[in-house]
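Work Package 4 report. The design task specified in the project plan requires that, given a folded chain encoded as structure tokens, an amino acid be chosen for each position. We show below one input record used in the internal validation round.
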């Protein structure tokens, strides 16, 4: 009985730690790839017409698409894929951006 109760606990603990690592990776990736334009805390740069990322109304799918595919009417680097990012790294950045308040 104890043995079967331990398995879900261990599984949940491992999942929680992997989410934590992804969030840390997302924050680190954001600092190196995004903060130069969007600011350290996602505050944006109004003078440069760079939007804030805090409390964004965009859902995760739209943010991920913007990072991985880009959009033709956006300024660089969002008019193309941010080079050197895997989909997993882009997802980590997306999760970090969604956490900005």
């Amino acid at each position: 009985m104890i043995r079967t109760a331990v398995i879900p606990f261990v599984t949940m603990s491992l999942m929680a730690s992997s989410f934590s690592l992804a969030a840390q990776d997302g924050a680190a990736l954001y600092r190196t790839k995004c903060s130069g334009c969007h600011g350290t805390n996602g505050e944006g740069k109004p003078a440069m017409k760079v939007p804030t990322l805090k409390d964004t109304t965009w859902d995760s799918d739209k943010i991920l698409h913007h990072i991985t595919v880009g959009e033709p009417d956006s300024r660089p680097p969002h008019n193309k894929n941010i080079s050197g990012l895997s989909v997993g790294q882009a997802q980590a950045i997306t999760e970090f951006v969604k956490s900005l308040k």
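Confidence is low (pLDDT under 50) at residues 10-20. Validation will be extended to a larger panel in the next phase.
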